[in-house]
Amino acid sequence: MRALYDPERHEPLADVAWSPSRARDAIGAICRDAEAAFDPVRLWPVHPGDDEPVTGGDGILRGVYVGAAGMLHGLARLAGAGLHVPTIDGAAVAGALHEASLASPDEDGAGASLLVGSSGILLVAHRLAPSAATADALAEAIAANIEHPSNELLLGAPGTMLAARAMHARTGDERFARLWRDSARSLLARQEADGLWTQDLYGERQRLVGACHGSAGNAMALLGAPAWLDDAAAVEERALASTRALALVDGDRASWQALATDSPEPPRVQWCHGAPGVITSLAAVAPGDDAHGTLLAAGGELVWQAGPVARSAGLCHGTAGNGFAFLALLERTGDERWLARARAFAMHALDQVARFRLAEGRYTLFTGDIGAALLAAACLEGDAGFPGLDDW
Q1: What pLDDT shows up at residue 381?
Q2: How many angstroms separate the CA atoms of 127 and 105, rounded?
Q3: What secondary structure letter does DSSP report for 39?
Q4: What is the pLDDT of residues 317-339, one digit of tens each?
Q5: How far apart are CA 104 and CA 61, in angstroms?
Q6: Start-end of H helices in 107-258
């Protein structure tokens, strides 16, 4: 049997008992450090690990994925849980991000996307200071992204579908439901016979599997509003079938490759590519399907056996994102062992933040320190919504 993960990408779990008081203290320290690092002009410093998207312009990152909007969203979520008292006027900062991002986007092709473009920035601004003008601008951005060729969450229509659903929930405005349906029809028209999509992404055409760029993330976006689909049962069945077909199973463990191709390389075990993202994307799907639940639990066993991700505490490809997979399984099954495992990963991620901050802090939602704080908060408060996707 091929290896289901690469041990070199992981590290042993720290022997640190779950402590609510220690978790709260660490969350507070992360938030205070983030606010101390904030500059009213330059916003947050760009970590060397996040400087790839900066392609020119003013060199300031403003989006949800690695920019200021994501930080404001994370800090607001922690403040809403009573774990942080903000000193930054987040509404004022968020309100100024959109126009500046149009002149200097986080990356080429950021466009109207949720995670690196204008939809996510406007969604944060509307959350912190709702206005009709912001809602109108967001509706225009979602409409502009319906035919995006990437067919994935980061840049494409699946991401802006999440924005449309959130805005409908906030406002009751039916135009957002219409935009969601138009996006879903466009996305489904491009789905291939085996339930996957070809992603036209950064100049490459690939068939990706996981949450950030692949079919799992697309299924999550589509099945988040089944009543709005023309045939939700068919969409669900294709998602289940492709998930089963692509799973690499060894006993009570399961893993998924990044690409829908046979590869000798061990799969990655992280939210963006691998079992954690498949689990967070699909744990709410088909609640009565025991076979699906068993397969996802096998993915959870693999995440636990692999251990924390080395060199990153964050959400996208770090320990915190993997911890959210355990919380998704807790919600699906009610089995408290998943909460215990999530808490173990939360304590480890907080320890990683403390270790890594000796060099420098990392101030982004998807790759930075605040991801560990959000996992710890979820373990305290029971809100398992994946940050930046499920918590709008």
Answers
A1: 83
A2: 21
A3: B
A4: 999 999 999 999 999 999 999 99
A5: 9
A6: 118-128, 132-144, 157-171, 174-189, 215-223, 232-246
Q: What's the pLDDT at 119?
A: 98
The dihedrals phi and psi of 206, each to the nearest 5 degrees, come to -140, 160
- The β-bridge relationship of strands 199-201 and 248-250 is unpaired
CB 115, CB 159: distance < 8 Å: yes
Q: Hey, what are 325's tokens?
A: 């997979």
What would the two tokens of residue 168 be?
């409908």
The conformation of residue 13, written as its DSSP 8-state character, comes to P
Give the position of tokens 């099954």.
333
DSSP secondary structure letters along 336-353: HHHHHHHHHHHHHHHHHH
Predicted pLDDT at 56? 62
Given a cut of 50, the residues of the chain with pLDDT beneath it are: none
| Cβ–Cβ under 8 Å, residues 386 and 314 | no
Q: What is the total residue count of the chain?
A: 392
Short-list 194, 129, 138, CA closest to 162: 138
Distances (CA, A) of 225 to 26, 162, 240, 357, 382: 36, 10, 17, 40, 22
User: What pLDDT score was predicted for residue 106?
Assistant: 95
Closest alpha carbon to 157 in 114, 204, 118: 114
CA 72 to chain centre: 15
pLDDT in the model for residue 262 = 83
Can you give the pLDDT at residue 123?
98
Q: What is the mean pLDDT of the chain?
A: 96
Q: Is 320 helix (H, G, I), strand (E, B) or coil?
A: helix
Helix (H, G, I), strand (E, B) or coil at 248: strand
In eight-state DSSP terms, residue 317 is: S
Per-residue exposure over 45-59, b if at least 16 CB sit within 10 Å of its own CB, e if not: bbbeebeebbeeeee
CA distance 343 to 378: 9
Nearest to 26 by CA among 327, 381, 380, 376: 376
Quote the pLDDT of residue 359. Answer: 82
Q: Which two tokens stand for residue 291?
A: 């076979």
Cα-atom radius of gyration of the chain, to the nearest Å? Answer: 19
DSSP 265: S
The predicted model scores a pTM of: 0.97
